[in-house]
Amino acid sequence: MRSPILRAALLGACVLGLFNSSATAKPAAPESEIVIRERTFIPAVISLTKDELVTLIIKNEDHDLHAFVPLLLFQGLNVMVTGNSAPEFNETGFARVLIPPRGQAEIRFRPGTTGRFFYICDLPGHNMRGEIIVAPDSS
Ligand SMILES: [Cu+2]
Fold this sequence. Notes:
The chain has 139 residues and is mostly beta strands. Helices cover 10% and strands 46% of the residues. A hairpin with a 6-residue loop joins strand 10 and strand 11. The site of copper (II) ion (CU) has 6 residues, from loops.
């Protein structure tokens, strides 16, 4: 079980303000917000625009640790993750971010493909799922 250690590390990061994003400038790009409340992603579906830089803000209002695990959406993209969260990357790019209780993750990226993309929380016993629709640029 690495969970208690991770929890302690995340808590430490919160206390120290290591990843405190309030000190950084607000991005000019549009923002889109997902709230986690009572083990539910709200809203269940959000829409983004292909090729438009966006900051996806995921706020965890629960007392539990949650994960944002995108399926396919971020593959091969440049992604910047800030906030008091713990991002994980693998060979395909951004893979997952752990968000502490009352914490948030800010994910800045430019969606490169249109379509419907799902994301989940993969923590044991959490049956949480949401959807991101990337629409074509209408301009
Ligand atoms: Cu969860």
